[in-house]
Amino acid sequence: MSDTPRKNGLTYAESGVDIDAGNAMVEAIKPLVRATRRPGADAEIGGFGGLFDLRAAGFRDPILVAANDGVGTKVKIAIESGIHDTIGIDLVAMCVNDLVVQGAEPLFFLDYFATGKLEPAVGIGIVKGIAEGCRQAGCALIGGETAEMPGLYAGGDYDLAGFAVGAAEREALLPRAGAVAAGDTLLGLASSGVHSNGYSLVRRVVAEAGLGWGDAAPFAPGITLGAALLTPTRIYVRSLLAALRAPEGDGIRALAHITGGGFIENIPRVLPDGFGVELDLDAIAPPPVFAWLARTGGIAETEMLRTFNCGIGMVLTVDPARAEAIAARLRAEGEAVTVIGRIIEAGTGPRVRPRGSLAL
Q1: CA 241 distance to own-chain centroid
Q2: What residues contact 332, with CB distance under 8 A and at least 6 apart?
Q3: For residue 55, what are the contacts with CB-CB under 8 A and spacing of at least 6?
Q4: In this structure, which of 57, 66, 84, 220 has its CB flanked by the most CB atoms within 10 Å?
């Protein structure tokens, strides 16, 4: 091996990292970021940290609530299908839906985008989706990080992580202490589809069916399989905040975001010890994608219930006397609402007790 120095030294670009491309992307996304401004944040990027003014946001005695998440292997479908402008909505949704279940209003969001080779058009598409998710949730995109890491990620592969911070007045935090009681009503809010959980199983089903992302979706006429499976996660923030702040809102006792683990794992997370739910599967109308997955993959109902949302993305535990008023408020805010069960005393038995069956 020669010890003779190279006449022209190596550069960062030659090692696979293009600083100029990163700078160009930052400039290109600034208008997208500015569009997420809200009271408390000017949504400007380029500094070393983002700022948020809680006083300007109007809080009196706030408790900060933070959440972070990703979108799992759903990004693999975005990469392989070349559809990059909706996955950012999923990223925001997975974080802000976790905030609102605690009664918190999402205030600001930061993202982390890591890739093997930065393609500015791909990055801009991703941030476009993130900005749209922030707009839907009413939070400001105040910063983020783009990391180009050749050798760690292959070619155009990428991954995403999101970080959201919200706030709630101290007395408004959920679940409400001591409020959940046997006989409370469970309301389910319809999902937009698979959302962002269970995609390793989804991809396995697609592979075993011999389908490609550009093929027609068997469960959604007129759209490709890739586009159908990339339908963004529904963001429930505005409708739930409107319901919580309405006169009947104090009848909402707990909220559960149905993510990884499905109904079986997520509903008990917001219930006091000793309580469970009787879940009426006959009342749930799963979108066609779930029936296709179950039939094509031979997936048992029990596995569907613990892996997917099966058509219900958010569950509310409410005072039975106010259930009708709360449901009406949510429908006025654009949600499809269904009574899907009730709270029971579970003792030491299973905390989620399904009855009936899913229409799969």
Answers
A1: 16
A2: none
A3: none
A4: 84
CB 337 within 8 A of CB 284: no
Q: Which residues make Cβ contacts (< 8 Å) with residue 27, sequence separation at least 6?
A: none
pLDDT in tens, 120-139: 999 999 999 999 999 999 99
The vertex-158 CA angle with 218 and 207, nearest 5°, equals: 30
Answer whether 294's CB lies under 8 Å from 350's CB: no
Task: Supply φ then ψ for residue 82, to 5 degrees.
Answer: 75, 15
CA distances from 297 to 118, 146, 224, 264 (A): 35, 37, 19, 20
Pairing of strands 275-280, 352-355: parallel
DSSP 177: T
Q: Which stretches of the chain drop beneath a pLDDT of 50?
A: 1
Predicted pLDDT of residue 7: 60
Q: What is the pTM of this model?
A: 0.92
